[in-house]
Amino acid sequence: MRENFLKILLLLGAAFYLVGAIVHYFGLTLFPWFDGTLYSPYHDSIIAMASLAISGFFFVTYLDPNKNLGNLRVIIIAALISGILTIVMAYKTDFVSLYGSTLKNSQAWVEGVSLIIFSFLIFILKPNKNS
Question: Hey, where are the domains in the chain?
Fold first, then answer.
């Protein structure tokens, strides 16, 4: 049961980053707080390529979490650090003066907290070395 839930989370992570790659590459809008003025074909293409690689990393780990404990550790640490840094960025950035709205701040907080929760869930569900 634990492994099934872990695999579902990893598959959702792979899907999230795959969708993120597509959205960034084509400059599509998925969220109500998307700001089209932030779209930059060069930077968003780089984000798309990185997201595609991360999606593949999640998918390979999903295929056999027991054989990919190292990958799981990287996912846990990266998600935790990314979540914390996203919250720090949200705290330090004055989104109102930049965009005239607090919606980007809310988005950053949701993303940061979600990444932290995701990292804890993966940590709790990861198999032991002896499994």
Answer: 2-125
